[in-house]
Specification:
About 9% of the residues have low confidence. This protein has 5 helices and no strands. The protein has a domain of 130 residues. Helices cover 76% and strands 0% of the residues.
Length: 187
C-alpha cells in the first residue's frame, strides 16, 4: 500500500509538471477546499491596450477609406470599383466582430472567442489589408497608404500578443480542469 501511495505521488507530481507549467499564480493551490466557480481571470493587458486603440482608430480609418474611395472612384476600372466596395463592407463587418471577440475573449478569458479573434485576424483581416496596401492597380493615395499601414501595424502587433494570450488562457483553464479532477478524487 505504501508503494501505491508513492507511485500516486510520483504520478501527481508528473501531471502537475506537465499541465500546470507556466500557470503560476492563476491556479489556486490544492488546499482541500472545493474549487468554486470564482477564479482569478488574467487578461493580457497589452492586448487590451491595442484593442482599445484599435477600437478608436477604426472609425477614423473607415472615414478616410470612404473619402479616398469617393475621390478615386471615377478613375478606377469597374472591377476595382466592385472589389473596393465589397472590401469596405467586408472589412467593416469583420473588424467589428473581431474587436468584439478580442474584448470578450481577453477580458473574460474565453478561449473560443480569443481563438476566433486570432483566426479572423490572421485568415481574413490581414490578407485584405495587405491587398489594399500592395495592389498597384488600386492607385493608392498617400493618405490611404498611411491609414492602411497603421491598421496593418496594429494587426501585426495584435496577432502575436493574442496568440500568447490564447496560450495563457488555455493553460490556465487546463490547470483549473486538472485541479477539479484532483479535488474530486477522479484524477
Amino acid at each position: 500500500m505504501a508503494q501505491a501511495a508513492g507511485v500516486r505521488r510520483q504520478l501527481d507530481s508528473l501531471t502537475r509538471n506537465i499541465f500546470l507549467r507556466d500557470v503560476g499564480r492563476t491556479v489556486p493551490e490544492k488546499s482541500g477546499a472545493p474549487l468554486t466557480g470564482d477564479s482569478e481571470v488574467a487578461p493580457s493587458v497589452s492586448l487590451q491596450i491595442f484593442l482599445y486603440f484599435n477600437a478608436f482608430y477604426f472609425p477614423f480609418w473607415w472615414v478616410c477609406y470612404v473619402i479616398m474611395l469617393q475621390l478615386k472612384y471615377v478613375l478606377l476600372p469597374d472591377y476595382y470599383k466592385f472589389i473596393l466596395v465589397v472590401l469596405l463592407i467586408l472589412m467593416s463587418v469583420i473588424e467589428v466582430i473581431r474587436l468584439y471577440l478580442g474584448y470578450s475573449g481577453n477580458l473574460q478569458e474565453k478561449v473560443p472567442e480569443l481563438a476566433g479573434f486570432c483566426l479572423l485576424s490572421i485568415l481574413l483581416q490581414l490578407p485584405l489589408l495587405l491587398f489594399l496596401l500592395c495592389d498597384p492597380g488600386l492607385e493608392p493615395l498617400p493618405l490611404e497608404r498611411a491609414v492602411h499601414g497603421i491598421l496593418t501595424a496594429f494587426l501585426l502587433i495584435q496577432i502575436p500578443i493574442s496568440i500568447f494570450a490564447l496560450r495563457k488562457a488555455t493553460r490556465h483553464l487546463a490547470g483549473r480542469f486538472h485541479l477539479l479532477g484532483d479535488l474530486d478524487g477522479r484524477a
